[in-house]
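Dear Dr. H.,

I hope your travels went smoothly. While you were away I took the liberty of generating a structure for the chain from your last submission, since the lab meeting agenda had it listed for discussion. I wanted you to have the full record in hand beforehand rather than looking at slides cold. The sequence, exactly as received, is reproduced here:
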Amino acid sequence: MAKTRHKETHGGKVWEIDVFQGENEGLVIAEVELERADEDVALPSFVKQEVSGDPRYYNSNLALKPFRTW
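The corresponding predicted structure, in token form, is as follows:
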């Protein structure tokens, strides 16, 4: 699975932004590491939807069922 990772700082946190290619082209996933599970985090404007609990976005599932096939 091909992707390019960028890092961007927003709200004092470093966001890792994966831009996918190939069968997952068009998908961009941003993630941030929190210090606590209940920590509030300000979402940057480039975040359109929270998908943390959606297993379709896990790398292992994207390899089996690419974004383009949804």
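Two observations you may find useful: The CA atoms of residues 15 and 67 lie 21 Å apart. The first helix runs from residue 59 to 64.

With kind regards,
E. W.
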